[in-house]
Design a protein that fits this description.
Number of domains: 1
Shape: elongated
Oligomer: single chain
Number of helices: 3
Strand order of the largest sheet: 1-2
Helix content: 40-55%
Strand content: 15-25%
Low-confidence stretches: 59-65
Length: about 140
C-alpha cells in the first residue's frame, strides 16, 4: 500500500516537472515571437520538449520486490527547423537588401494552445497530489 502511494506521488511529480518545462518553453517562444536576432545573432527558433516514459525506482519499490514505476521525463529540447516568416520592413536594422526581415517561426496561437494544454496537465497532476495527500491523511486518522 505504501509503495502504491509513493509510486503515485512519483508519477504525479514527474508530470508536474514535465508540464512546467512545457510552460517555460511556450512562454519563451511567445516572448521571442517578434525577435529578429538572438544572442547568437541568428533568428530565434521555437523550442519544443520531447517527452518520454521513464522508469523510476526507489528504495521502497526495491524493498517490496517491485521493479519501479513509470512516469514521464523531458528527454531533450528540440528547435523547430521550419523557416521563419519574412516581413517587409525596409527601415528595420536587420532588413536584408530587399527590405525584408525574418521573424521567428513562432505561431502565437499555437503557443497559447500549448500553454493551455500544459496548464491543464499541470492542474491534473497537482489535483492527483492533493488527492493522495488527503488519502494519506485519512489513512493515518483511521490508524489512530
Amino acid at each position: 500500500m505504501a509503495n502504491d502511494f509513493f509510486s503515485a506521488m512519483n508519477i504525479s511529480a514527474s508530470g508536474l516537472a514535465a508540464e512546467r518545462t512545457r510552460v517555460n518553453l511556450a512562454t519563451s517562444n511567445l516572448a521571442n515571437a517578434e525577435s529578429t536576432r538572438g544572442p547568437d545573432g541568428k533568428v530565434y527558433k521555437r523550442q519544443d520538449p520531447v517527452l518520454e516514459a521513464a522508469s523510476f525506482s526507489n528504495e521502497m519499490s526495491g524493498a517490496l520486490g517491485s521493479g519501479g514505476e513509470l512516469g514521464v521525463k523531458v528527454s531533450r529540447i528540440v528547435e523547430d527547423q521550419s523557416e521563419g516568416r519574412r516581413v517587409y520592413s525596409p527601415g528595420h536594422p536587420d532588413a536584408d537588401g530587399d527590405g525584408f526581415i525574418t521573424l521567428p517561426n513562432v505561431n502565437p496561437v499555437h503557443e497559447v494552445v500549448n500553454l493551455m494544454t500544459a496548464q491543464r496537465g499541470y492542474d491534473a497532476n497537482a489535483t492527483a497530489v492533493e488527492t493522495l495527500k488527503t488519502m494519506a491523511g485519512r489513512a493515518l486518522d483511521i490508524a489512530k
